[in-house]
Write a structure and sequence with these properties.
Helix Hairpins; alpha+beta; single chain; 2 strands; 2 helices
Length: 79
């Protein structure tokens, strides 16, 4: 049975739990690797969610005529 997709918030919470488990160092190697793989998959999912959200974001800009228009949010610069 396929696992249901977690919300962004639930995925982040699960990543935090996994990091905490791994930092304690009490898991056997195989379980640690399984948890690490799970965290990587969740992180990729979160990144995709953030990228999709960024595409939806618009900013309100005042025009010369004192009206407002929506423009896409500028991409972050890679300085």
């Amino acid at each position: 049975m396929p696992k249901k997709k977690l919300s962004f918030e639930d995925a982040m919470k699960r990543i935090e739990e996994i990091v905490s488990d791994l930092e304690r160092g009490e898991l056997p190697l195989e379980k640690s690797l399984d948890r690490f793989e799970e965290a990587v998959k969740l992180a990729r999912s979160c990144q995709q969610t953030l990228e999709a959200a960024q595409k939806r974001i618009s900013k309100l800009v005042r025009t010369e005529e004192d009206s407002f228009t929506l423009e896409p949010l500028d991409e972050p610069s890679e300085d």
